[in-house]
Amino acid sequence: MMKKALAVIMSAALVGSLACAPVFAENLSDTSEGIAQFDGLTANEPYDFQIVVKSFQSTYWQAALQGMDQAKDELGVTYSAQGPASESDIADQVNMLNSAINGAPAGVGLAACDTSSVLESLQTAADNGVPIVAFDTGIADAPEGSVVCTVVTDNVAAGEVAAVNLYEAIKDQLGDGTVRIGEINQDNYALNIQQRGLGFINKIIELANADGYSVAMEGNEYYVNEAVGAVEGDADIILEVRVPAQTTVDMCSTEAGTILDKEDTIAVFGSNQTAAEGLLVANDNREVLGDTIVGVGFDAGTSIKAAVEDGTFLGAVTQSPLMMGYYCIYALTAAANGQELIDVPTDGYWYDASNMDDEAIAPNLYD
Amino acid sequence: MGEVILTMKGIDKSFPGVHALDHVDLELRKGEVHALMGENGAGKSTLMKVLTGIYTKDSGTITFEGKEVEFHNTHEAQEAGIVIVHQELNMVGDLTVAQNIFIGREFKKGIMIDDKKMIAESRKLFDELHIDIDPKAKMSDLTVGKQQMCEIAKAISHKAKVIIFDEPSAALTEKEIEDLFVIIRDLRKQNLGIIYISHRMDEIKVITDRVTVMRDGGYVGTLITEECTKEDIINMMVGRVIYEDPKTHSMVPDDAPVVLKVEHLNAGKMVQDVSFELKKGEILGFSGLMGAGRTETARALFGADPKTGGDIYINGQKVTINSPEDAVKHGIGYLSEDRKRYGIVVQKTITENSTMATMEKFTSGLFINKGAEKKAAEQYIKELATKTPSADELVVNLSGGNQQKVVIAKWLVRNCDILIFDEPTRGIDVGAKNEIYKLMNRLAAEGKSIIMISSEMTEILRMSDRIVVMCEGKKTGEIRIEDATQEAIMDKATRDIN
Amino acid sequence: MMTKKKSIFTQEVIVGIVLVALYFFFRTISADFGKYTTFLSMMDISYYYVFMAIGVAFPLITGGVDLSIGTGMICYALAGGFMIRQYGWPTGLAICLSIVFGLAIGLLNGVLIALMGLPPFLATLCTCMITRGLGSVVTGSFAVPWPTAKQPNGWFHSIFKITLENKTKIPLGLVWVILLMLIMQFVLAHTKFGRYTIAIGSNKEAAMLSGINVKFYHVMVYAVSGLFAGLASIAYGAVIKTVQPGTGAGMELDAIGGAIVGGVSASGGYGTIYGTVIGAYVIIFLKQGLPYIGFNANMQQIITGLVLIGAVAIDIVKRKVVK
Question: Does A253 sit within 8 Å of C41, measured CB to CB?
């Protein structure tokens, strides 16, 4: 039943865009181990779960609930969801979590506003044998036995998705003198940005090497040092990574400007919403993206969606709250059945002008 | 007097635009109290700052205990045995006496501060000086006089050989000054060299052995105190004899109208049920000791501090004054005792200061009419004979007396009829003092009414038409100038204390 | 008595020279920096920093500070954008809301500081936190887009930048920067409000005892700062387009730093608005130029910090000389 549902969602995406087809195939293979554990899953009882989200006010969380509804119908379980008025109401969320745990449900799905504030509640859950599934946000220091499964975006894979699509668009320009690919990373210390940035870099190197092209790294020391397979000196591709002094859109745009201004730049990737918006601000005055330079963004938001729509961006990678919600219910059901679980990384999904209105993609694209 | 301990010879120091010290000499012997005198700006403080390493001299030599020395900071000077007791006390109010005396060189027991030893050492110091102060008392609980004693004890604890007193008596009562002199004589007996800076001529005669006089950054001469008169010293300082004649009778006609009437004014502990009247053209002196509540009365009247009760009548009309803004509207101007803190904005020009209280007169719509502003400032520079190159001069560059004239101008521009002068000549040198006196008399003659708060008995007796005496927040007496004597005032000023 | 000759090399003039030198220095090293499009981008980003700097110069001159302008600007931009997005307000009304919101928070700062006696650092730190939280609450923690230039409500973009028929873009915002600079310099130098602002910074007690309604003017000083943070939020919405809640902290430091570099005394009592604007552009040129000559993120911050120390050192030396 599970596979069938997935197939419905996926095929919608596949039909939507032929160009995306190979990418999706790859996504599936990357994360299939986490998904495979749900093969043939049925609910032993009609469980009732409690879901605590960060808030209800955005389309992002509505997409997560949409995924949950889908899974709920497939598995014949029920859930009730609650969340504070805003993502900054940490105390409210902790209260909701506590009352959810006290009701002794079959399991609790949690997207924590603040990971350190929920630790005490998680200990109570562990003591009372209430399994917790963390989705959207991993909880690093969760007490032993509380969080049984974590459903979060696989950032390495998300970076790779961007790389594959970007490479596809520029590979015809390779081999004819040195070209430059830029990457704007908001910082070099947050784990998700590091993973995404390196996922992109290493995939580009891998794809280029496979076609017989060499890649040299430039820019931020962290990413230069962590890249695998780059050469020193002359190369067919220079991959330049820039990190702004502050994690603001305007500083990202300055760094982006330095890349867009270079004569040999043919493509650029902004690895999160701030970086991608910085790219767009820099492009405002230069108007080179979608013209001489291929741009790829990440996440959604009005500016980025508009850029994808009008062709400024080739496309962008979005995380999937829909999928996270979907697998959250699956993980809760499996845990209630008493199954031992491994974490479920969800993919980043490629979207461009052709598929952004698809029902599998659109709910993920918040404003 | 013993052998020479310190010689400063040909000391020269310039700042951008000013020749602050012009080849100044000073010789100090062991067991000597040596007065350093001169008008404000004569260079006394600069000379002492050169000596203690705060400023570097441009040329000249300093010989201390037979060796030529040059200190680079006060710490080096202290180490050598030259310490300065400042006019403004450098004490941390929230720490105890002992903690203050040993601040920066605390005794330690391991990593802990050894408070017990510091207290014991402080006690020993006080015993030596015959001072009765509890080393464990909080500094802010002590009177100004006691705090100064602590400052002296701190100086001595540095094993000082030379102690410089910079206007030590400015904030002390008569009794405290007597105590201070006992200590200074004691130190003289112990063969220390003492430099004593003061404006008070009487003190110089009482306590010092020799006097060195400076004028305009130059050295004028050194006299033996016993062999000279007050007038000799003043002549050396200013080159002329001065002073307005003291008043012998009131200049105010008996039927002069009352312009200000204060009834039962109350404001905290320092102002208790104060009532008085001020007549047109009168100079009403407010006398009393430090802390008698005179300034507090003025500030409460002016609306600068909150009142707890009392009525104020101006020209017979009852008025409400809750802020300085109200007071100014009713034609009252206040010249603070602490000019630099409360009276003027030193970094601004004469023009800007002069019109500060009267902005609306010089604004049309939203904008300031700078031409009219400057014209008004220039008018009063001329009228008050303020010495300045122009109305655009920064007030910081003026001498104390001329700064005071700028404050007066501020209230005259405002056309205030009632002026409160709080210590009008504090920190102003002898020459300029007289000009301020003349000016006040002229203003009174022109029909302005003046309240003059002063701690200088001579000033009170010279200027007032009538004298209100206060003690510990209460009005203790009112004396006509015809009946006023120093003794009569002191009797009322100390009535409650004895 | 001494009369000092006024040197023509005031801090403002020196900083002006530094600004020009900086521009040509970056140009020489990086040809890309000299491109017109780079200049346009730099101007785009400058507007909100400069507006904040002009506003915060007033509290600085009174010897205070306003730390709430960075998060405040984001909060006001969120509020205005949210109204367009969620309730379909016309852009003009939303702009008014943002500016009035800024003014209100400024007044709140003024009341806390001038009437209730809180230290400016503390009071504005509190409102800094409040505005940061408030922005998230209003929008449900979600990023808020302002209309893009091509959308029907996007006319306000042309306040800051217009495109001529031959596709040349003109940084119109620069005109507003210069205009506001002249107006506020005039306010500071030639109005009662400006005179009292300086008087409060030089000697608040003396100002009070001169019968000036110090409390009122002190409140107004912070209102001006808030008002300009409100103006900055419009520029931010026009340039960055998508406003993310939780951001903005730290931007006030660039604005304050700009004012200080431009000769506003860190201890109050002195400052000019043209100096402030020039100083803000020095900071912006550094932030924008250093990446072009290959300095990485860490070096950029170190250099900006050193420049600030230099500016404050000049201020301290200046005051010592006057003493």
Answer: yes
